[in-house]
Structure formats: structure tokens, C-alpha cells
Amino acid sequence: MKPRSSRLRLPVSGILLATLLAACATPEPPRTQPPAPVESRMPGSVRPPATAPAAAPVPLPAPSPAAPGGVLQPLPAPGLPPAAPAPFTGPQGQALVQQLLPPVVTKDRAGWAADIAAAFTALGLPPSAENYCAAIAVIEQESTFQADPAVPGLSKIVWREIEARRAKYLIPRVALDTALARPSPGGRSYRQRIDALRTEREMSELFGDMIDELPAGKLLLSGYNPVRTGGPMQVSVAFAEEHARARPYPLPARATLRDAVFTRRGGLYFGIAHLLDYPAPYRDPLYRFADFNAGHYSSRNAAFQQAVARLSGRTLALDGDLLNYAGGTPAATASNTQRAVLGLSRRLGLSREEIQAGLRQEKDESFYRTQVYRRVFALADAAAGRPLPREAVPRIDLKSPKIRSRITTGWFAERVKMRYGHCMDRAALARSL
């Protein structure tokens, strides 16, 4: 079973310490005017404006035409009245979202409702109570409706990792202390900023300043930033970048997609896209919530792994990844699931090349239509004498410096589904009034 985290990872590399130590040789006086936040970015990017993107609403792209048959399957609400047949649009949708928000949202309910409704419009998603409640449940679970949620003990996590790296690389404590005493943009030392860290956005800005301001920082740390998720839905920066390649997101001048993720409007847009902007015919919203944590189609793929395990007699990790990956691309080394399916080649009536081509579609909707998917389930259903489940919650332990107890994808999905049920109760009440 692969450990996985749905939030940030905070490794502090030896490169970082080397960069800090290099800073000791050429100290600069503190600045009187703090510059704008700095984010990790690709070569050729520029510094964001002095005014943070959150200060002004970010215009969202126009809705795109829905895919044939709709963008996604409606989320069911067992035991509750069906949603209103006519979709909500404009002020109606915003008013409904405001009614569906949980009691915990005591500040700027209208603003939250407006940004949620705007994301649905921009993405071309069906504005139903079920879909609104799905997004609301994830927001409540991930941040309790905080645009930039605080991380308890963030500075302790960073200091613990820095000390471990210092000891590993035999760096004298006095040298490290001198480096961290260097003034950063705004006048505070890097030590003071680490001690005061509260949110992931602050952590991201800190690393951005280290990249841009410390000697050799751009060369040694370019592209490295330990904060990989952010905003009210804790959406991945990598997902935002991938989604924006297919559907460009309008950014303010000199801002980055990383900046947008840390704003309420941008974080909701990309978080709702990750949750709902892909077709998955799940019978229960539980599996879509699991996918939000583990990755698109992880619940479908975990069920496929169950079927393969039954046919092959092998014990497989039901983690939703059918292939091994390195840097986001399939690795040369075959995974246990891959080897198990290849071992069924003769029974499936498929060549190794056909199996490999099918498995490479595991992250896409098209995997449903591959011969390897269809034939595995045909054999497994026949062997079991009944249709086997086509979805299963991936069995993944979540790992992060922030997590002190055992938390799994299943735990996350069940918690979100509970909040979804509460929201649908509010929807039923609103329809009865």
C-alpha cells in the first residue's frame, strides 16, 4: 500500500540549507518596503503584483459547452426527495448555495456562495443541489470554509525537519543560525518568519523569497516548493496547472496559477473542477469523494484491482494505481497489478501489447471501454457467479508531517459523505419551504 497525502509535504532539502549558508557571505540591509509575495515558478515567469490576487475578484472563463451526455453523472441522494428538475442559474443558483452553506459559515456567506456559483458557471457544471452539496462538503472537510486555512504547529514541523537536515549534513549550528538571521524581504529574518508561520500560503511565500532573494537561490531552488496544495479545498497546484492547459484560467497581470490556488475564488474554481469536472458513473458519491483524495478514477481502478486479485489469486494493494509512476509518467518497472494482469493474458485472449495499451488509460474515462477492463470483469463476474462491484474505496494511508494519527482515504471519503448528507438535509428543507 502506497502512503499518500492529499495536502502539503514539507521536506526541507540539503540544497535549502546550502543556500541559506551561502547567504551568510553577502548580507544585505533590510528593506523598508516589503515586496509582493513570491512563488516558485518556471523559468520566464515573473513576480506577482504588489497587491495579492485575493484583493480583487479574478474573472472566470466563460462556460464551455457540455460534453455529449453531460459532464458528469448526477450525484444520488438516497432517501431524499429528488432535486428540482430545472437547473438553477444566476442569482437563483447563488441564493440556493447560500441556503446550503453550513452554519459554520458565519462570515461573508454571500461571498462564498457567489464564488461557488461562479465556478459552476465557468466550468459548465450542472448547478444542482446534489452537485453544490458535493462541493460544499469537501470545502467544509478540508478547511471549514477558510480561504487560507492555518496549519497547527507548522513552524515546529519546519524546525524539526531543518534540525534533522542540519545533523545529517554535519552543518555547524552557528553557521545555520547566522544564515537564518539574515533579513528577508520586509525586514524580518528568515528565523522570525519560520517562527511565525501559520498557513500554507505563508510557507509558499517564504520559499519563494528564498528562491529569489538568497544568493544562488534561483539556481539551486528553482521549481522547488514544499507547499503543493492550497486554498479552501486544498487542491493540488499540479492539478491546477494541468487543468489550465486544457482550459486556460485568466490570471491578473504577473500572477501565477499557484497564486490563484491560494485565493478563495481560484481555490474554489480548481477544487470544484477536480471534484466534478470529469465523467464517472459512480452509484454513490462516496467514490467521487474518495477520488478527490486519491486521484481521478482511483475508485474504479481499485475495483478493477479487486477483480484481478480474484482471478489471479495474487494479493494486490487496492490503491487505485494500476501502473508504477515516476515523475507523473509510467515507470519502466511493472507494478504488481500490471504483472498480475499480464499473467492473465491467455485467459483474457489479449496480447501483452494490448494489455499494456489498455492499462495506460487508467487515468482516463476511456479505460472503461478498453478490452482489458471489459474482459477482466467478464471473467471475474462469471467466476463469482454474480456481477462484481465496479467501484471500491482505495485503501491508502495518508502520510504528512501534519498528520499524527492513522488517516486513510476511506476515512476522508466517509467524513465528506456525512457532511454531504447534512447539506442534502438542508436542501430538502429549502425545497419544503
Give a description of the structure.
It is built from 19 helices and six strands. By secondary structure, it is mostly helical. The chain folds into three domains: 104 residues, no CATH class; 103 residues, no CATH class; 152 residues, no CATH class. The strands form three sheets. It has a two-stranded antiparallel ribbon with strand order 1-2. Helix 4 crosses helix 12, helix 14 crosses helix 15 and helix 14 packs across helix 18. The chain is globular, with a radius of gyration of 24 Å. It starts with 13 loop residues before the first helix and ends with a helix. Keywords: Signal. This is DUF1615 domain-containing protein.
Short overview:
The protein is mainly alpha-helical. The chain has three domains: 14-35 and 149-230, no CATH class; 90-147 and 232-276, no CATH class; 282-433, no CATH class. The chain is built from 19 helices and six strands.
Give descriptors for this structure.
single chain; 433 residues; mainly alpha; 3 domains; two-stranded antiparallel ribbon; two-stranded antiparallel sheet; 19 helices; globular
